[in-house]
Design a protein that fits this description.
single chain; mainly alpha; elongated
């Protein structure tokens, strides 16, 4: 991240720092960089616990197989079979990522 040219610290009623204000462009640049991050819990479930990335994300987000299947437009049993696969075709990965509200890059690890 580039060095901030204008950072403002706003103190709370107790005098301790409570807020940091940065230029909007810098905020957007940082937000874009963080867009594809994957939470530790998701990686642990997928890599160390032997689950698929799709299942790890679904569980992390608190969704049921039926809910994700409905969002994709397929049956729950069909989704369950696909979720177990270690590697899915890109069109299905894209549909699952959209259904989960994540980026395709977050599902590809």
């Amino acid at each position: 991240m580039s060095k901030s040219l204008s950072v403002q610290i706003i103190n709370g009623p107790d005098g301790a720092p409570a807020f940091v204000v940065i230029p909007y462009a810098e905020y957007m640049a940082q937000r874009d960089q963080e867009r594809d991050l994957i939470p530790h819990e998701v990686v642990t479930r997928a890599v160390f616990d032997g689950g698929s990335p799709a299942r790890a994300w679904r569980e992390y987000l608190g969704l049921t197989r039926a809910e994700v299947a409905r969002r994709i437009g397929i049956g729950r049993a069909d989704y369950a079979k696909r979720e177990k696969r270690p590697k899915l075709r890109k069109p299905m990965r894209r549909k699952i990522a959209t259904a989960l509200g994540i980026t395709l890059a977050q599902l590809d690890f």
